[in-house]
Task: structure prediction
Amino acid sequence: MRDELDAVLDLIAAGSTADALETSVLDFKTQNRRSVQDTLDDLADAVACFANAGGGTVVVGVADRVPGPDAFVGHDLDVDATRRRIYELTDPSILADVEVVAHACGEVLVIHVPRGVTVHKVKSKMPTERVGTSCMPMSTHRIASLVAERQGDDWSAHDSGVSVQDVDEVAVAIARSRLERSVDPRRRERARTATAELLRALGVVTERNTLTNAGAMLFRGLEQFPVLVSYVYRRTPTGALAANEQLTGPLVAVLQRFFDLAEARIDRTSVSVGSGQQLQVGDLPDGAVREAVVNAVMHRDYRRTDRVTVEHSPTRLAVTSPGGFVAGVRVDNVLTTSSRTRNGNLAQAIRGLDFAETAGAGVDRMYAEMARIGHQPPVYAADPESVTVTLMGGAPNASLARFVATLPADEAEDADTLLVLLTLLTQRLVDATGMTPLLQKPDIAETQAVLERLASDEVRLIETTRESRRNTLPRYRLREEPVAALGSAVTYRRRTADQLDRKVVALVKEAGTINSRMVRIMLDLDVPTTSRLLRDLVDRGFLVRTSTATRGRAVTYGAGPQVPDKRRTGSADGAPRPQLEELDLD
Result:
C-alpha cells in the first residue's frame, strides 16, 4: 500500500488533484480550521465509514482541488492522540494504524482503516459506509445484513421448519434431470438415490430432518418470497413489453423456467470452425446469461423480500439483485476477488445441482463468454441496496469466435486470455499498466505475468515489440499468425518492423541491388522511416552499401553477410546460414 500511496502523492505533486484520485478505498482530507477536536471528530466519521465498507486509507494534509505542490497544506496532528481519539469516538471502538509519511512536497498524516468486525458508528450518529467516493447512510436492512454477514450468520443455513416430506416433486424431478446430464459420474449416481438421500447430499437437511432455508427455497418455495424472479422482454431496449413473467414456486423450477424463456428469445448465428463443424453462437451467450441470473439468486440478500429482476432485449440483458455486494467485493475487483457469498448453504446446493460454476468461476465465465464472441465485458453497478450486471450483446464476431475455437481449451476458457485478445482486435499495442484495470489485477506484476504467459512459446499469442523488449514493462502486439487467422476481426492493418525487414531482404535477394527510393515506394514509407530501416539493416548485417555515395537515392545496397545465398548451404567458416523464414531480424 505504501508504494501505491507514494505514486498517488507523486501524481498530485505533478499536477493532478486529490479529488480526482480518490477511490472507494482512498480519501483525502485537510485539517478543520475551527479546532483540532473538530478535525478528530471528522476523521472518526471517515474511519467508521471505511470500516463499515471494506477498509481504506485516509490521508490528512492534502487539499482536494488544488493541483501540484500547493496541494500539500500539512497538518499539526499528533499520531498517538489521533489514534486514541478515533478509538474513543467509534462504537465499537476501532484501533486504526496512524503514521506520518514524508513527501518531497510536504508531510501528511495517513490513517489505515481495517475492515470492521461489525457495524461501527460515531457517538449517536447514523452509521455510514463508503460507496464510491462518498459516505452514505446505512438503511436498517443494510445494517442487519452486514452484522449477520460479519458474524458469519448464514440465513440460508437456518432451519426452515419445512419437513423433507413436503418437497415439490416437480422440483425434485428437475433436479434429477440436471444431475443425470452431469459430466460428473458421482452426480449422475446421486440422481438415482431416494429423495431424502439426494437432499442430504446437497447439504440442505438439518439434524431435525427438516429443510434449511436453502432447501425449502429450492424444493418447495417460501411464503415470504411470493415472486423470486421478475422477467420482462422487449423486442427493442425501450420498446413495449413483449413478455412479463413473474416466476414463483421452488427456486429449482424458477431457474429452469428462466432458462427456457431466455433461450427461446436469443438469436443465434451459425459459425463454421472448420472440418465441417458448426457453432451456434447466440447474440447473448447462453453461459453468460445463465451465470448472471444464477449469481443473482445465489448471492442476493434474502433478509430483503425484493425479487431479482431481469430485463431482456435481443442485444441486452440486465439483472438486478437485492442487497449490495458482500463486504470486500467492489465493481473494480469483482472479476478477481476471492469467492464470497452471504448464502453459503444455498450456494453449495446450487453448485451441487450443476446450476452454477464452481466457487469463484461464475464471474470469470461471464467475462470469458462475452469476450470470446467479440462483446465487451459485463458492466457492474452497485450500491448498498442492489447490484446490477448488464450484458451488451449483438451479432457475434464470427472471425473471433472461429479463432477462439482453435485455441487450447485452457486458453479458450480463460478470461484473462480472451480480454487481452479482445483488446488487441482494436488496439495495436498493450502493456501491463494499461491492462491492469481491465483484468482487475491487484497489482501490475500479476498483469505482466499474464502477458508473459501469452507471449511464451507454449501459447504464442502475442509478442513484445522490438523497441520495448528490454523494458521492465514491455509493450505487446499480436503475433503475425494470430493476425492472419483473425482476418477481419482485427480492425487495423498491422505492419510490424519485422515484416518490413523481411520484405526488404526479399527485395534485395530478388533485385540484387536496391536504393532508398525503391524501398520507400514498394513499402509505402516516408523518408525518415525508410532511412532508419535501411540503417538498422546495415548495422545488423542484412544489407551492405555497394556505392561510394553516402547520402540520398544514389546510395545503393546489396545483400549482407546475414542473408543466405541459395547457392551455398553454409558460411565460409562452415556454419549453416539462416533461411529467409528463420532470419533473426530482431
